[in-house]
Design the sequence.
């Protein structure tokens, strides 16, 4: 991922002349401006996010400049990386960057003769699925989502984030399953709790879409699964938690259910009945 980030920054910000350094290379003698690239922790997260890592980019300009130059370079870095799907030229791994904010306050680094500011990015690389899993419930939920949003810019994904996911988009995944006996002996009710992740191009778009989708779920009551066969998913208890992270946790919760027929196992048919009289009677 490091090589992919370096390549992207070099291509998109020609003013730095390819000067992207790591911590051990930084010194007062280096030409400026430059970007200091630092990799943080890396971990394997979940089935829907794959692996992730934190990176810090420090736009660095001469102390003889001012922080307006830091602002300009910082904006160019965010524009180059935030929400972008990249490919590492060494490993060929696909990953996506997301701007997470600044690392502390502006800084004067006298040892390196620069003024700088830390920018934190979350880098997510979805793991490749071992096999394609067909899930008609998730397919129906994604179709309903795109139809409800009604905007061609939006994408809807099921089960896990793809490595090249784009903004704005929605991911639906299952959190838990259960089956309960239906009101009739011959039926069983399948319930699945879903979590929806809404990632917008801005915080306002993201929050507005979360609210809109949740309200639409409440009003929909049922979502078409197969209208021709009159099969639908019943929606219940949609709710929202905006404090949760959009990519890694998800903000929307809802339960979907459907009653299905269950049949007793068929045994051999009885062809005839014979009665043997008791000779002693």
Sequence:
């Amino acid at each position: 991922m490091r090589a992919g980030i370096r390549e992207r920054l070099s291509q998109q910000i020609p003013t730095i002349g390819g000067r992207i350094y790591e911590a051990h290379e930084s010194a007062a003698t280096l030409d400026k401006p430059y970007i200091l690239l630092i990799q943080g922790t890396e971990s394997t997260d979940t089935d829907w996010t794959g692996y992730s890592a934190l990176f810090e980019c420090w736009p660095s300009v001469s102390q003889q400049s001012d922080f307006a130059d830091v602002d300009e370079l910082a904006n160019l870095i965010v524009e180059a990386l935030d929400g972008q799907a990249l490919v590492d030229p060494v490993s060929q791994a696909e990953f996506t960057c997301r701007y997470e904010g600044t690392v502390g306050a502006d800084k004067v680094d006298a040892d390196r003769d620069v003024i700088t500011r830390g920018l934190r990015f979350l880098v997510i690389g979805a793991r490749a699925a071992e096999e394609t899993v067909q899930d008609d419930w998730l397919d129906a939920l994604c179709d309903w989502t795109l139809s409800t949003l009604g905007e061609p810019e939006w994408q809807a994904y099921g089960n896990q984030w793809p490595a090249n996911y784009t903004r704005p988009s929605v991911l639906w995944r299952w959190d838990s399953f259960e089956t309960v006996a239906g009101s009739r002996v011959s039926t069983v009710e399948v319930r699945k709790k879903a979590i929806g992740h809404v990632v917008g191009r801005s915080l306002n778009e993201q929050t507005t879409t979360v609210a809109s989708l949740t309200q639409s779920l409440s009003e929909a009551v049922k979502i078409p699964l197969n209208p021709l066969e009159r099969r639908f998913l019943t929606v219940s208890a949609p709710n929202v938690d905006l404090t949760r992270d959009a990519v890694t946790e998800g903000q929307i919760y809802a339960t979907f259910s459907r009653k299905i027929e269950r049949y007793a196992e068929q045994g051999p048919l009885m062809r005839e009945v014979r009665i043997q009289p008791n000779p002693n009677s």
